[in-house]
Amino acid sequence: MIRILFADESQHITSNVMKRLEREDGIALCGTARDGEFAFQEAIRLKPDVAVIDASLPGMDGLQTTELLSQHLPYTGIILTSLDSENDAYRQAMYVGAREFLQKPYRGDDLIAAVRRVFEFEQKRQTISQSSSALHDAQAQGAAQTKNGALITVLSGQGGSGKSLIATNLAIDLKRLTNDRVILLDLSLQFGDIGALLNLPSQRTIVDLATNDAVTDMESIEQAIVKGPEGIDVLLAPLSPEQADYVTTSHLRVLIENLRQEYPYLVADTASYLSEVTLDAIEMSDFRVVVFDPSLTGTKNAHLFMQVLNVLNVDPETVTLVMNYRETGPGLDQAGIEGFLHMSPHVVIPYDGVNVSKSQVTSTPITMLAPASPTAAAIKGLGQRLTGEEEAVLEAAKQDTVKKKQRRFFGFAK
User: Fold this and answer.
1) Helix (H) or strand (E) holding 86
2) For a Cys staple, 80 with which of 20, 51, 98, 352, CB 3.0–4.6 Å?
3) pTM of the entire predicted model
4) 163/360 Cα distance (integer angstroms)
5) Is 47 in a helix, a strand, or coil?
């Protein structure tokens, strides 16, 4: 029996839904609410299988209620309803933890179908979560694996910072600099952009490995990987936002442990918020690249992100701060940025609107489209820093300067 909590301010809508549910086998209404606070209290008390929440609830609105429910009742599937246009509301619904969105007015049959889909999804997710925990425990009890490959996680505290573009081009530059195997992981599981940026096919993704408990099987992993430009390998994010919950942190840890044995370099793009997956990626990483733009909000978010890394006891030596000039608009000057962050960016990527736009339109990484551009040069410098080649380049330049001075001293140069 699927137990439903229905929350809507309209008594008329609630009454119609109650009548429709009475005619449906296998579904029962366990509670109703007309405001957000009461809906949350009833959900905690009743622990329904599915909660149908209207976005415009009085008091604590439906989005806030949904976010709280998703945190406190992770296996209660939530359907958010709203009068707003579907595209805008759908994205909001997914961000706060809803599994489905229904635009008002909706038919009773549509609601029943959505309830059954969400219930089946949650049942499967719970089974997968239990299975993945057992999988991780078994892995931990087995012979310890030697960590080989370096995980480089690209992070940002804001959307639109250029994080995914930098992660993509960094992976390509690492391949060029080292001629080693490199894999790019799209860990922005709800709204990953790597597939679109590289125009890659996405028949199989990371979710296929999670749902089949195949994160330990390299043959299955290789089947899910697609070939990217310059010979890099890519593991794409799920095809739809709701599939993100199939991928647990247990899956992620075991997957990365196995990929480290095959790839000297793993580059992970992440979501622009601190999800459980992102926090685990930060913990597992060998290097963390924090991307921000020089706007006031971008700098503020970078400061907050650096504070989070400090709280997580991340070694500052493993963090590279990258300032990306993604537009020519007003922003803080260098002194203002350094004063706010109490440090200077390690890498500065200059504004290059023409080449960045061409790169996005043609799905061609800028390091391939315009390898001589300042942007490509800056990202290459980031790669050199992470591989240790930056020190070698600086040392070579220093030695070259010494030789030139010696030649001038002995009269060998004009």
Assistant:
1) helix 86-96
2) 98
3) 0.64
4) 13
5) coil
Burial class (CB in 10 A: 0-12, 13-18, 19+), 46: middle
- Percent of the chain residues topping a pLDDT of 90: 43
Whole-number Å distance between alpha carbons of 245 and 75: 11
- Sign of the dihedral through C-alpha 70, 88, 210, 230: negative
Which architecture characterizes domain 2-126 according to CATH? 3-Layer(aba) Sandwich (3.40)
Cβ partners under 8 Å of residue 155, min gap 6: 163, 270, 278, 282, 288, 289, 290, 291, 305
Handedness of CA 222, 379, 348, 330 (dihedral sign): negative
- What is the token pair recorded at 208? 């296929």
151-388 CATH pick, 3.40.50.300, 3.50.50.60, 3.90.228.20, 3.30.70.100: 3.40.50.300
The burial of 258, by beta-carbon neighbours within 10 Å (0-12 exposed, 13-18 middle, 19 or more buried), is given as middle
pLDDT for 301-313, tens place per residue? 888 888 888 888 8
Chain Cα centroid distance, residue 321: 18
Structure tokens at 213: 């408990």
Q: Are the C-beta atoms of 271 and 188 separated by less than 8 Å? A: yes
Helix (H) or strand (E) holding 130: helix 108-141
Which residues, 6 or more positions from 177, have their beta carbon under 8 angstroms from its beta carbon? 380, 383, 384, 387, 389
Q: Helices in 179-295 by DSSP H: which ranges?
A: 194-198, 206-211, 218-224, 249-262, 276-284
Q: What is the DSSP letter of 50?
A: E
> pLDDT tens digit string along 225-265?
999 999 999 999 998 888 888 888 888 888 998 999 999 99
